[in-house]
Design brief:
Two copies of one chain form a homodimer. Chain A is mainly alpha-helical. In chain A, about 70% of the residues lie in helices and about 0% in strands.
């Protein structure tokens, strides 16, 4: 079973807990390989734990108007594996030594191995999606990998750039995060008996909670405490990444703003502390909360065309859960 | 048009030159993007030149028993793009500053960007293959990426290991090289009017010339001259990679052999020179030639069930061409 699920998550996942356990089993099965060099790598990569929120989305979306089929489980496994592959490449790009308290693949075996293992897992995830026999979800899956990679490229080239437009931020977090959330729920729906309107509704749901999820993440980087985050507060700014709160700060105080100083080297700690203080003590935090609420409301509104059932209730509770994380 | 094609290649490609030009056009079209950060990267990656032998294989295989369709061009473009993506990751893993006389992506923009650009191109190549609408070729394509990545992982973990079995060498070069050659010809056939026996024949053809191609490459690393290779002679051994000639040397002289010395650090230049001399002055070189000839003969024999036509003649000439490279 996915580790680290709290009581709330178990409630949300309850309509699909059995299927999620099968996804977990399939992930573990993938660690069986005839290639001895790969064995310890797969073992490490696939026992990553995590909340499994993306495969849960696929399973919940597919169980709304269900079809008797293994396909949602195949798809959900592919979605989670894709997520694990991107984490390995992200840690390589970001030079991150740890991930969820465990050593990263790149710190254990070197960046070379991390690049190749990520490639192997990307491709493995694609074969799982091919096993659904549904070309539409395969294509959407490939497009998602393009969006994930281009989102990271856009972020990389804009580090330490204090001038960033809001619409480019939204585009970037769509690519980095919401794209895979959208794909998770959309493909679950495509692989069920849902009609096109319902597929579209579940796609919109995934998009909106993905956007909310990332904005909350960006907010917690500024408001959270170090112990909870598992990384220092202000980590994004420290690495030159502007997110919603800091972009709003630049817009609100275009002239007297510590961010350009922070991004141009000296006295960083002081500028960082000033930036965090200014954000925390302004209307920016409630503005960001309002944006999260808006995404979550849109997510739940998009579910209205779907039948009332346990799975729909779970998706609504998930949106509420994300909304509450931001308070 | 693909750059650097010599007269022989033009003859081989003559039945499909028009289609290969369309592949080239599509590759250039892919450089058009709405993402400004990606533009210079795609521009650089897609103007790589090269002999385009893999897409030529797809086009020749598909024109044996042709169907009126754009699919072989889509597939050939995907095959070449996959090749370009792997080169970018390989250069990142190998820390290579140049590729075909041009700066590598990782040396120009850093390894971080090279990892992400490779991911983007892998995924883009998969969307092209999805556009064929044929799930069988999409799945084969994903498996090929798994084989390519695992081949590189196996090679990486066996560097500086002087004890390697021949069958593991053959498995490794299948994954690294012959897998994509096989996929190029096999998918071309699947996307034509070929029957299953003919598909299988063209798959075998691709496999065998892929294996021959890599053995020749490994031989040239020892027999070639620096100017022609564009890299120092003995480059594989210098980087701790055993290939067919050096594995045969270890088998022939298990006791008095300079390779364990070469792989365990000091006096490397002397051990390298001795290793190269021993290989050159033994029966190993003609033995390797015989293995190449054998693969090429098998490649050509597998074509016997196919109709006599220009494309079949081209494939036969290609096998002869690879055989001659090894003399």
């Amino acid at each position: 079973m996915a580790q680290g699920l709290d009581a709330r998550a178990v409630t949300i996942y309850s309509p699909i807990l059995d299927k999620l356990a099968l996804v977990e089993e399939r992930l573990q099965d993938l660690a069986q390989t005839s290639i001895p060099e790969l064995e310890p790598l797969l073992d490490h990569a696939l026992s990553h734990g995590g909340k499994r929120v993306r495969p849960a989305l696929t399973l919940l979306a597919s169980s709304m108007i269900p079809l008797e089929s293994e396909n949602p489980i195949r798809m959900a496994t592919g979605v989670e594996l894709l997520h694990l592959a991107t984490l390995i490449h992200d840690d390589t790009v970001d030079d991150a030594d740890t991930r969820r308290g465990r050593a990263s693949v790149s710190s254990l075996w070197g960046k070379e191995v991390a690049v190749l293992l990520g490639d192997y897992l990307f491709a493995t995830s694609a074969t799982l999606v091919c096993d659904t026999g549904n070309l539409r979800v395969v294509r959407r899956f490939a497009e998602t990998i393009m969006e994930l990679a281009s989102g990271e490229i856009i972020e990389y080239f804009n580090t330490f750039n204090p001038q960033q437009e809001l619409d480019r931020y939204y585009d970037r977090i769509y690519r980095k995060t919401a794209s895979l959330f959208r794909t998770a729920s959309e493909t679950g729906a495509v692989l069920s008996a849902a009609n096109e309107e319902q597929v579209c509704a579940l796609k919109d749901y995934g998009y909106n909670i993905g956007m909310a999820f990332q904005v909350v993440d960006d907010l917690l980087d500024i408001l959270g405490d170090e112990a909870e985050l598992g990384k220092p507060v202000g980590n994004d700014l420290r690495h030159g990444v502007l997110t919603l709160p800091s972009i709003l700060l630049m817009q609100k105080y275009p002239l007297e703003n510590p961010i350009p100083d922070l991004f141009s080297a000296p006295r960083q700690d002081e500028s960082l502390a000033r930036t965090l203080d200014m954000i925390r003590n302004s209307s920016i935090v409630p503005d960001c909360f309002a944006i999260v609420r808006d995404y979550c409301d849109r997510a739940n509104r998009s579910l209205q065309c779907l039948p009332s059932c346990d799975s729909r209730e779970s998706l609504e509770t998930l949106a509420d859960y994300i909304r509450e994380r931001s308070r």
